[in-house]
Give the backbone structure.
Amino acid sequence: MIEQEEEYWGKFAPTYDNDQEYIVGNAILQAITTKLHEECDLGEVIEFGCGAGYFTKVIARKARHVIATDLSDQMLEVARVQLQKFQNITIQKANCEDTYFPSGRFDSVFMANLIHVVENPMNVFQESHQILRHGGLLLVVDFTGYGMNWFEKMKLGIRYLKKWGMPSRYVRHNLSPDELVSFVENIDFKVEEVRLLGDKTKALYLRGRKA
Ligand SMILES: C[S@@+](CC[C@H](N)C(=O)[O-])C[C@H]1O[C@@H](n2cnc3c(N)ncnc32)[C@H](O)[C@@H]1O
């Protein structure tokens, strides 16, 4: 199963960032980037599902050190090239549903556009809780169709099919702020902020604390 997911994502790696921009549009990527710039003192960070590293470089400016992880070797190869000038980023392979990091190792866990594609989001939040220190920050960004009108959804779907074909089998198309909050509260995170970003295309932005 996990091998199939790795293969699925790996084939998009060489053009991932450009394709993503074509599909969701530059405005939402900028809205996420601007919001991430408001973060500060992220400390020792682990990123799950870093892909080609689009948001890793934003987070790295706010962190002492980032371990950027992904399931796909091909994604990690592209990320390694794109992030080579950052001294405070380490790139490592890891499955975010079952990592090998010790308990309490990180100040912050960051994931962008991962929760809507994983088989079991609860495993990801459980793992995040385990490897965060007490009071550590959970930062989740996730594209969603929630709040989009049907015409924009249809156009986005066509752009997706054109670039990447059929979506990953686990994909959640319309995760709502309440659903995301309930996932993380179930794992004993205290939600500090949740909001819907974007205009034509949307993303959820959530900050939670390990209680
Ligand atoms: C939609 S892409 C998002 C990439 C990047 N975060 C971004 O926003 O540009 C999802 C990424 O999650 C990775 N991924 C999927 N399942 C994973 C898992 N179980 N563990 C780690 N990474 C995973 C994929 O390989 C892919 O790079």
